[in-house]
Amino acid sequence: SASPSPPPPSASPSPPPPSASPSPPSPPPLQPPPPPSAPPPPPPSPPPSPPSPPASPPPPLPPLSPGYVAAATETELRNLIEEATSTAAEQADSLPQESRQVRAHRSSASRPVAHVLRRRLKTDVTCEIVLRQKMNPPGGAALPPEPACVPVGRRGPVYEFSPSLPKAFVASMGGVRQLGGKIVTFVGGNASAEKSVPTVFIPASATVVADGPARGVQRLSAAATGTKKVLVARMRSTTHGQEPTPTINDLKERVFGMGISPVAVNFKSQSAACSENELIIEPGACVSGNTAPGCAEISDGVMNLDLDMDLSPGVDYGAVEYAAVVKLNALGLGDAATADYVMFLFPPGISPWIAYAYINGWSSFYSDTWGGSVSAHMHEVGHNFGLAHSGEFDEEYGDQSSYMGYSYLSIGWPAMCYHGGQHRSLGWYSTHTTEIAASDFVSGQNELVDLFAFTDVQALSAGDPVIIKLDVANAGYALYLQYNKAEDHNSGVVESANLITVVQDALNTPAYQQSWKVASLGEGDDYDDNLRVKVCSLDVVGSVDVVRLSISLDYIGDPCPPPSLSPPPAPPSPPPASPPPSPPPSPPAPPAPPSPPPA
To answer: Are strands 515-521 and 390-392 parallel, antiparallel or unpaired?
Structure first.
């Protein structure tokens, strides 16, 4: 699933990689016979041979479709058909048994002449490779990403590969996950829309040339910031009446928090809250002055996309996807100005998966009622942003502290976000991320750092970390620490609530790579694998929670300092002594006797 980006540069043919062995040159296109000229002198007559019996005339050839090169003569055309049929049969024989059944038509000698010519004449095909990630219901097997081809520089139907991409080429690019965004030319391939799902045929003789690096990683973080417009398209049949269960109003409520009874926890609200308003989702709409016929069909970002086909359960989902993209473009709504991303809803019973999306693409597809699930929206558009799955133990979707784990068929639940590595990949919390390299530690060294809850970020100062990246280069991965406080927009987190999650992810995210939650730590817990992380304390300071962590290489003993001891309180001072009572007043002195008279 993907985000808007400037059109990729046109792919120019480049020489094959040095390791590739040169392929034999393709035969030149067949030309009509030259105009008659003066006949050359006749060669000497060969000795006479016995007459051969007359050959029966060959059956007439089917007519050529317009647009294909004609052979010079009927005999040359017949030889060409036989050669192409033989080549197709050899290629089909090299496929696994199940693939032979699917592609049995490739070895059929009764294919129309135009099809055989098209395969044999080998037109070079240039693709931008996209990866499609499908999701099974909870408990279902995890599915690897699948490569597909899209037209370079524009939104168009997705072409399947037949057979799959050459294994040697995929290995030379570092595996399937590294192919997203690459511009690839198949020299001697062929693009065909003969089936309901367009297909790029890759003959065994084709040379594969990759032009430039994958763009997916380069454009990842920019995709998940700023204002993005989302269009929701309900695919419904005009001929048979099938349509998705969620109504237009249901989708307004559940995707955008609009409509008659807005749902509080929706795709728009969670995108804004989890990104701290780095990502703002707005309903898709035509820009002012756009008079495209589909503009009037959009109501608050939601529309009915009418298809003239049967949408009964079991119909090929790829054919429906192809018809939907073609119709969207025919209505003039396939441009990024109308919508950066488009969510398509299937009617019941068509998609074998609950949802799927194109990695770093613009589209996601939902099986009926899953189109109203906020966790499915955040998961699939997460693929559009370039995020891979988040697992735990041996389950690829097992990390239920992140939307990139399992999804839930619930309306307005759960309120949660992504893990620390994914938040960083999306370009969120960039001023609240601390990076620590294991190579900076020496034996016995211990470092104490504080970690804050990402839900408290508005109350923090710049530089207060809500994500800590531990760069473990010697082991080839990074560990991401995030305090998963269960409040506000993370109040419904399904697991690891109020714990510090430790996630092992790609060393240099952003990258499309599976991540794994390896620990959930509470106060006093530690994780020790190449680096030791221990939770020393979790305190509330003012209005925010502060986690004190110890990080060390091989610290022996308890790395957390003991709590500081306050001096004992001073004993109370004795009450001041009462002053002694005042002595009683002295009695008055007796009067002095009278003086004797003088003599």
So the answer is: parallel
